[in-house]
Amino acid sequence: MSAARITPWGAVTGGALRANGGRLVLSVAAIALGVALGYAVQLINQAAVNELSAGLATVAGDADLEVRGPRAGFDESLFPAVAARPEVALASPVVEVDAKLAGDRGELALLGIDVFRAGPIQPGLVGEGEDGLDVLRPDAIFLSVAAADALGVKRGDRVGVLAGLEPVELRVAGLLSARTPGRLGVMDIAAVQDRFGRVGRITRIDLRLRPGTDVAAFRAALQAELPPGLVVARPEASLRAATSLSRAYRVNLNVLALVALFTGGLLVFSTQALAVVRRRTQLALLRVLGVKRRALAVTLVGEGAAIGAAGAALGLVAGYALAAAAVSIFGSDLGAGYFRGVTPRLGVEPGSAAAFFLLGVAAAVLGSLAPALEAARAQPGPALKAGDEQRALARLATPWPGLALWAAGLAASFLPPVRGLPLFGYAAIACLLVGTIVLMPRVAHAALSAAPRPRAVPGALALDQLRGAPGQASVSLAAIVAAVSLMVSMAIMVASFRQSVDDWLDRVLPADLYVRASMTTDTAFLSPADLERLAAIPGVRRSEPLRAQRILLAADRAGVALLAKPVDPADPARQLPLVGAFVVPKPGDPPPAWVTEPMVDLYGYRIGERIELPIAGRMAPFVVAGVWRDYARQQGAVMIQREVFVALTGDANANAVALWLDPGASPDAVSRAVAAAVPGGGNLEIATPGEIRDISLSVFDRTFAVTYALEAAAVLIGLVGLSSSFSALVLARRREFGVLRHLGMTRRQIGAMLAVEGFAVSAVGLAVGLAIGWLISLVLIHVVNRQSFHWGMELHVPWAGLAALGAVLLALATLTALASGRQAMGADVVRAVKEDW
Amino acid sequence: MIAIRDVSKAYAGPRERSVLTAISLELARGEYVAIMGESGVGKSTLLNLVAGLDRPDAGAIVVDGVEVTALDDDALTALRRARMGFVFQAFHVLPYLSVAQNVALPLALLGVAAGEAQTRVGAMLDAVGLADRAASMPRELSGGELQRVAIARALVHRPAVVLADEPTGNLDPESAAQILALLAATIRAHGATGILVTHSHAAAATADRILTLTRSGLREETRR
């Protein structure tokens, strides 16, 4: 290749690579980190959902439709009527119970099937044992491979499943097909009904229709004939219902991961903006020599694209490794508890890999777009002269785009969710953040103008420099403002959430001791006799039983918790953490029901409204008497009076009981007495409010651990951005430092000047970041969180934590500026005054 | 005032380049000399060595009774701050300071009280014909005006030595003539010793002595 051959790309980029290599590497790393985090979260979520889908697909088999009801089940006499319909080719009844395992071994999804009917529709559920008749034997259970692995059992071993509080011993007769995913066990339907109190009841009927049947029409006709509380839907609806709970969490996690990519894009912006400023005369010379505007702009945007492509490629590889490590350490839900029992297998999906690659490239291209356009628009004449650098950034000071973004952000924060997701909430945050960054030159200028001019020369010069070149300061500020505001907003939101959970626990745990058979499974409960025994224990002053069931209000939503305990309708706030006002039903009104916040958001319930709930196969009328806060059930819950529930269902069992003790009674002694008083008492979970609080808060902290990690990544990129832009700025100002050294400023004084600049810029960034962070936290709390999880919370600002964080950031930013200055103060700084470029 | 004794300087690199070899020069107080010579012969290097911005490989340089080559960086900086003034080809006026603030900078570094500094800056701007531009920002000034600011800044703290490196290289002939006259007049008015590095015979003619630097050493051309 001829040494004389050169292209515009080579002329523009070759020198930049040599002079700016370190910062370009940082930009690539920032994009890589952003893509890695986003891709890792996507891979983990997708793997978990795929696994869940596969599990549900196995359970549903080849069914065209499924009839589903409450977890308590519905009358099996419905089955022959449905199966006999001419459109139905095959019908398979199923009893589903979430079983609690004896010996504190956790839970197991247990399916009771009629093997002869299930075989053709759900072959994955038919187990293979040594004895062909085991599929019909009442003591035989077939486990999925994942369940057997989790329980550490093999064929022939025994597994205890609680019925009430007593264990039912089951024999592991064999394993389900290795292709059957999830942690589940399958038994004969009659055995499940008999052993777990479900005689005469089933929970699902899977239907395969005759060829040519209009599935939608048949579905509508069948739905019209079904008793209240039952739905007929395609199996996909079950998947939607199963994944709907985790959907908002998954989307939020993805968005949070993309924040790192956003700050990475800002880092590219500051690197490219300052590189363009630094090369201003070189670029002007190329224009003079005949390089067209478009070619220059394309070349500079191409640089951004190259940074993005390199970063994104690295990010995809790192993301896969990160996902594999995260799944093995935290599990598929990253500690949040949404996918318990799901063992995901990571797989590379070309679609999402391509999407994240393009996102990485797009972030870098967008970051380099404004500097590239500015460089292309600059008039070559003035740009050739030294000292024209500030003009390059003057365009950034236009306030209108920033103000427009702010207006759009504020407007978006009042808009409703889109398909259950707070898309406008995210848009509001993005608009507020980008709008603030766009306004930073004005804000920085105003803030720095208001600051008093220090007496010492280095400080005075630092402030003069920042006031005179707000555009440069703003470029440095972009990444730090973004990082700080996102960090602060997350910190306020998480602190608000945690404090609200803490306050809520205070209100929902008024008793001295809590005794629980199980809140989440169907098989363990306390019988009326057990409740009487507990109430009679010496030292127990009062007991309050709680019954929990799940009812189905919509086919594509998860079941709603139906809770029953003694509640005084005249003063419900004594037993429930009510939010706002309540009504007392008038004589003649239906009984009261108190609903949680998700019921208001998802089902539109309003105080005073009459509603009907499917309980025990009929629609029972209630009046919505109040709204209460419940952080335990995201899918929504309805509390009714225990006597109403018992009258409707005849079910006087309880899942849990709260005990108030006599003054001076020892909780430990009463706990021991509880375990001894009821048969199977050893299987009860007994805890004090303090223990439940500790467990609850540790679950909360584990859930948010991953958000802290993603947040830390964003802050790290922000700090790197500050460091990178500062070092670029310092390098661009070597001539100025040379002059100052000529005039008699010592290295220390110039160092002090840079430290003051770093401190002042960071202080402005921190102050703006704190203010915008607070505003964004309001959007997170009242829009994103509310629309995602339907939970209300009170604002709690963690002042001490934020102050400490601010101090650390300020110190780090100042040191960063100082270090950048030291690096740029080499011996050739004096020679820089001789350079025109 | 300035004594340069047997100073040599070479730049290291793949091919070591000897720039100055055993150069000697004596300048009396108030003397204003011009140094001419081909590009790369070492004129600016000599200026940097006098200013203590670079160190000679051999020889000694004494400025106002102080041996520059024996000082550490802090002492050299203090010497430049108090006793030297600089005028550069590219002006190097700080863009974020006003004209008056630029001129006041050396006084601020020396800790001169604000009141006195204001008086001296006013007088200096008056002397260079920029009294009415004190509040202007550098971007509002022409090249000639910028160099006047630089001259005012170089002399406002009454330095013993003024070093000017191609001060009119970026100016048109008319402005250049004015600036050279102004520089010579102000240096003389302040009784400072001046060294002007230039390629221009017209510029050199404004000095008291003209020296030519060649590979073989310094040669005196003219003395008034």
In short:
The complex is a heterodimer of chains A (837) and B (224). Chain A is α+β, with helices and mostly antiparallel strands.
What do these coordinates show?
The complex is a heterodimer of chains A (837) and B (224). By secondary structure, chain A is α+β, with helices and mostly antiparallel strands. Chain A has 4 domains: 1-60 and 243-385, no CATH class; 65-233, no CATH class; 440-509 and 691-837, no CATH class; 513-687, no CATH class. Chain A has 24 helices and 22 strands. The radius of gyration of chain A is 33 Å and the shape is elongated. Chain B is 36% helix and 28% strand. Chain B has 7 helices and 10 strands. Chain B has helices at residues 43-51, 73-83, 99-110, 114-127, 143-155, 173-189, 201-204, and strands at 2-11, 17-27, 32-37, 58-63, 66-67, 84-87, 161-165, 193-197, 209-214, 217-223. In chain B, α3 (99-110) packs across α4 (114-127) and α3 (99-110) packs parallel to α5 (143-155). The model of chain B has no long low-confidence stretch (mean pLDDT 88). The A-B interface holds A 386-387, 390, 457, 460-461, 464-465, 467-469, 735-736, 738-739, 741-747, 749, 830, 833-834, 836 and B 44, 48, 51, 53-54, 73-74, 77-78, 80-82, 84, 86, 88-90, 92, 94-97, 101, 105-106, 108-110, 137-139, 153, 165.
